[in-house]
Amino acid sequence: xxxxxxxxxxxxxxxxxxxxxxxxxxxxxxxxxxxxxxxxxxxxxxxxxxxxxxxxxxxxxxxxxxxxxxxxxxxxxxxxxxxxxxxxxxxxxxxxxxxxxxxxxxxxxxxxxxxxxxxxxxxxxxxxxxxxxxxxxxxxxxxxxxxxxxxxxxxxxxxxxxxxxxxxxxxxxxxxxxxxxxxxxxxxxxxxxxx
Length: 195
Description:
The chain has 4 helices and 10 strands. By secondary structure, it is an alpha+beta fold. It has a domain at 54-147: Jelly Rolls (Sandwich), CATH 2.60.120. Strands 1, 3, 6, 7, 8 and 10 form a 6-stranded antiparallel β-sheet that branches. Strand 7 (110-112) and strand 8 form a beta hairpin. Helix 2 runs antiparallel to helix 4. It is elongated. Residues 5-9 have low confidence and may be disordered.
């Protein structure tokens, strides 16, 4: 049978559908990886710099801690790094009541930046927005008060993980849609799906 007869009998070869969806899926996945990495690096750098912005107090210079988001705050000892029971830390809430300062607990939470070095020794709950006055009794005591660096470090991974996960899910959805679309029979295919 000649080529002309074969074409006449079976029709023109089926038309290949576009592979554009594969490229789009790959592009979305790549963008998700880059965006997640950039967000992770940015948050990591911001977290490393947080101790420089902590409120600091000594016996001669009490501190005022501004709390915009209530929650747990950590007391870090700096300088000679005295223990909590020697520091005599007193925290006064915006309403004038005294806030209980508890020992930090088990585990070690430290930081060491170019300007400051500290170790967690205490914690308290800032339950309301406002300015908290922080006083140190020991003349050799130096403290910094801020957020929990451990929680902040965990937070570094949450945002990037969400960005990456959403991007990969979108890329997977585009990929599946493209594969299914390429297999779906059309009139131009003569009713034959293309793998």
